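pinned: reference chain
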Amino acid sequence: MSETGMHENPLVPNAKLRQMYVAMAEARVLDEHIARLQKRSKGLKGRRRLASTHGQEACRVSTAIDLGPGDLVSDSQVGVVMDLLAGAKVSSLLKHVAGLTSGKNGAGKNAGAVKLGGTSGRLLPWVDDAGERLRMAMGAALSFKALGRANVVVAYVRNGEVSKGVWRRVLELAGKLELPMIFVVLPAGGGEKRNGMTNLSANTARWGVPGIPVDAGDAVALYRVAQESLGRTRVGDGPVLIECMACPMEGLGRGTAGDPLVQIKEFLLGRNVCSKAWLERAGDGLRRRIAARRP
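pinned: its structure tokens
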């Protein structure tokens, strides 16, 4: 048996680790592509821009990579990266991005807000108010429960966009009804108003929902927590809240989290899961698809 095989973790097999890294790398490639298009587009003046997921790759990939047919996602922002993670056809996705970033397909203030499922069929409609988004997600989860389906709804919410009172009401109801939901709290972006709670997961148990804090940059830890939470929720044990905490890395400023792609690279190389050359090639397929669309 090789050294790699001897150290393989059966809970997170090496093949899954490589799959996660490719998904994270492609999410970063798509995010950077969108940023470039929006920077040079004149058609976006006064229109809603697609939000960046830079730095959220571990939080999103680790909690969504094993969602299956029929599972739904309530996103925290207008974007398309979750469609990519859900397996949307790349050609259709890039065409959709081109239209949204050019303003040529009617992408106004409500861009992406009313189209059910985005391009993947998995996303719930997006609305500005986070409390309304959570209630919509809870309605979808209640439908799953009433129909006896083993599907789940994963609801992403940025830390600070929901108040303590809203969280208490939402989680108390979700816990009481034992809804098949995973609440994923993303770190607040720089400069965002924080009207919510810090260390939310320490307070959720009294509202009937277990809360688990995890390093927002640690894709492997997030994946293990997500798998345990999804397993619990699918068998009817109710919702779970995963709080992605921005943990500062050594050498960075206080409150500044490390790059999740750098963290998982170091993890994979340290355990001989793949080579440095393989890591550098991850995402090349999507880069080529993007380059092929350029005039």
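why pinned: Residues 204 and 211 are 6 Å apart (CA to CA). The beta strands are 72-74, 153-158, 181-186, 211-215, 240-245.
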